[in-house]
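Input chain follows. Return structure tokens only.
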Amino acid sequence: MLDNLRMNSPTKPRRFDCITFDWDGTLFDSTAIIVRCIQGAVKEVGGTVPTDLQASYVIGLGLMQALAHAAPDVPKEKYPALGEAYRQQWALHVDDIHFFPGTMQMLLALQAQGHKLAVATGKSRRGLDDVLQRELQGVKLSALFDATRTADQTAGKPDPQMLHELMEQLDVKPERMLMIGDTTHDLLLARNAGVASVGVSFGAHAHEEFAPYSPLFVAHSMQQLHDWLLVNA
């Protein structure tokens, strides 16, 4: 049946001109490594090490916002050391992280349908640029996206500034943009910006927490997300 839906989808009017993705836990399979990096950084500066659940909750926020939330007993004067400890932990693992299986095929298919693709992430500008310079499956990642925004460029989630700037840059109206993410921060970002959202359950937050934000759909695998987008986006 899905094959028939895919065949019919090109004749269906496009609902969204731009599809905006969160990065970690949505496109990149990085949640577990980020959790370990947060825990290692907090331990290094002498704070109470957060649980896996506490560390995963802050994924998607700006770096220092996330670290401060995950380590409330670390004094502010130690924040620079905490941030540096996290960056050192991350540098040890960055090459271990890749797209979820099927992500590249999905992005290329969306491009072929004429969608603009964007990224709105809690990563730093430098951190995202480093990843976008990589090449996967013969494709440079930067070539996949029409525009990107990071928390240190604009404002951290769920402040809507990231999406407002992307819409302005790409000349897209709120009703023609879709935000996809793995956390409640992403879905609240979408709601605050007046755009529709889709959640994915394979990232940092439990999908049972998504209901108050009224996502159009919750995908439980990349293939499920791919199939839904090709038919409904």
